[in-house]
Design goal:
GMC_OxRtase_C; ten-stranded antiparallel sheet; P2Ox-like; single chain; FAD; eight-stranded mixed sheet; globular; 14 helices; 22% strand; alpha/beta; 530 residues; FAD-bd; 21 strands
């Protein structure tokens, strides 16, 4: 069922086996998996079924570090969470992402990629993806062109799958509404987490709507699934019984914030006879939409002290009609509005998207014109390619989310986001590009013009809006907030779900891993409740 706390019809107290706070990919997946196992779930969502300015405004905060990032508009406070505007690229983290590295302090998870593989496979259908196969050899027989003939022990072709992208509100809202094991309450903002008399476990959660209706929730297990920024904000704000906040005994909540550095500066020119069709655009094989890029082999990553990275070749045409540099957030907003109107409905977040289009009208106009012209002009071969990536950062405790004095209408302190982009992060990426260039040259395929200077210009790095790491997973309570099962080290029945538990970010977009971890957590919770 789905109900609204603003109705005033909620009982004074809700009960369930598990209380899940947040209805994004992590929360909805977790609730549905638990319901399949017969567990009663109370699912709390701060927003409504659709975008609302008042709920969204609760995300407002400050940017105090690297400025090419956003703390509010990049997240959505409504049913379905930020799946309402993700772009849909998916891949699992690599085995090397889970492994501790001597050259990189704080790298490595307390679990391994093999531990997640079964859950990655189960996550694929949630995101409308194809088979759990991300090795190029599997797709090679039906690929539209050959892979670049590079030494695969040095640089190899990587595969990402493309979700439509799945909007969790559109796909799962009615499923949740019809599920008798799930009691979902909208406009239910978490305002306190109350511990028992011993201070070792959560006794209840308090929730309140913006118009003052309140409810208490009691459960055996509690899960916070509100995203990489908000998870930390909630723990830091709930300090009535622990002055430093919940789970923050070692000052780690909010630290190790990491993101993917979105950079598109390095240029590759391939020889005329090189067939790069595979990499130039998305391809559909069977029912699966695929993106192909280049990756450095794991042994080389470690030996050369690099961060992980997947580089995609973005075609650059002499005829600008076919270039896509207009594809920023104004164009994305415009595209979403067009799609909604084409399906006979008013776009969600119409006012916000309209403003984004107006603010970036020049690029939107350019994009619309080019799309029309592409229907009548023949497409020529690209003259070059830009390398685009969401590059990994090294774990950094100084990159963090903290509270500021300003409070929201519910009394929660707002956050400051201090995202750190370091010289070393950028220089590791420069060396990555340089190595790819060397391999292209050695194979006689082309040449490269490096787009990362030395010393590096930090302004080239933009956020992928992948908020991660603020309640990181680690076996040692002095080095992480949650354990290998996503449970707070210091609170016996409180768990975190979503990208805040990532110990390292790798270079894969996080939604597939978020969903896999949610399925894994559902298995654990169900087993502990048996």
């Amino acid at each position: 069922m789905i109900a609204d706390l603003r109705s005033g019809e909620a009982p004074a107290e809700l009960t369930g086996d598990v209380c899940v706070v947040g209805s994004g990919p992590a929360g909805v997946t977790l609730a549905l998996e638990l319901a399949k196992k017969g567990r009663q779930v109370v699912l709390l969502e701060s927003g409504g079924e659709h975008y609302e300015e008042a709920s969204q405004a609760l995300y407002e905060g400050r940017i105090t570090g690297h400025q090419n990032i956003d703390v509010a508009a990049s997240r959505l406070r409504q049913f379905g969470g930020t799946s309402g505007h993700w772009t849909g690229m998916c891949a699992p983290l690599d085995p090397v992402d889970f492994t501790p590295r001597p050259d990189m302090p704080d790298h490595g998870w307390p679990i391994r990629r093999a531990d997640l593989d079964p859950f990655y496979a189960r996550a694929q259908p949630y995101l409308d993806l194809g088979p759990y196969r991300y090795d190029f050899d599997y797709w090679r027989p039906n690929a539209p062109g050959p892979a670049l003939p590079l030494d695969p022990t040095k640089v190899f072709t990587t595969v990402y799958q493309q979700s439509p992208p799945t909007r969790f509100a559109l796909k799962y809202m009615e499923t949740v509404r019809a599920e008798p094991k799930i009691s979902c309450w909208l406009h239910a903002n978490l305002v306190d987490i109350a511990l028992d008399a011993a201070g070792s476990a959560v006794e209840r959660i308090e929730a309140r709507s913006l118009d003052g209706h309140s409810v208490s929730v009691r459960a055996n297990r509690f899960v916070i699934a509100c995203g990489g920024v908000e998870n930390a904000r909630i723990l830091l704000n709930c300090r009535k019984q622990r002055a430093e906040g919940l789970g923050n005994e070692n000052g780690l909540v909010g630290r190790y914030y990491t993101d993917h550095m979105t950079i598109e500066t390095t240029l590759v020119a391939l020889e005329d006879e090189v067939d790069a069709t595979l990499y130039e655009e998305q391809h559909t094989i069977g029912d699966t939409v695929l993106n192909f890029g280049l990756k450095i082999a794991p042994d080389e990553i470690v030996a050369r002290g690099l961060n992980n990275n997947a580089a995609f070749l973005i075609p650059q045409f002499e005829d600008e009609t076919f270039n896509d540099e207009f594809r920023d957030y104004g164009w994305i907003a415009f595209s979403e509005m067009v799609k909604a109107f084409a399906h006979g409905r008013v776009p969600e977040r119409f006012g916000e998207r309209y403003c984004e289009v107006v603010d970036d009208l020049g690029r939107v106009t350019t994009g619309a014109y080019r799309h029309v012209m592409r229907k009548v002009k023949p497409r020529s071969k690209p003259v070059a390619f830009k390398l685009r990536q969401d590059a990994e950062q090294s774990p950094n405790p100084d990159s963090r989310v903290t509270l500021i004095d300003e409070v929201d209408p519910l009394g929660f302190q707002r956050v400051a986001l201090d995202w750190r982009v370091t010289d070393e992060d950028l220089l590791r990426l420069r060396r990555t590009h340089q190595f790819i260039g060397e391999q292209l040259g050695a194979a006689g395929l082309g040449r490269m013009r490096l787009g990362i200077s030395e010393p590096p210009d930090h302004d080239i790095a933009f956020s992928g809006y992948h908020h991660m790491g603020t309640t990181r997973m680690h076996a040692d309570p002095k080095r992480g907030v949650v354990d290998a099962n996503c449970r707070l080290h210091s609170v016996g029945n409180l768990y975190m779900a979503g990208s805040s538990v990532f110990t390292t970010a790798g270079c894969a977009n996080p939604t597939l891993t978020i969903t896999a971890l949610a399925i894994r957590l559902a298995e654990h919770l169900s087993a502990t409740l048996a």
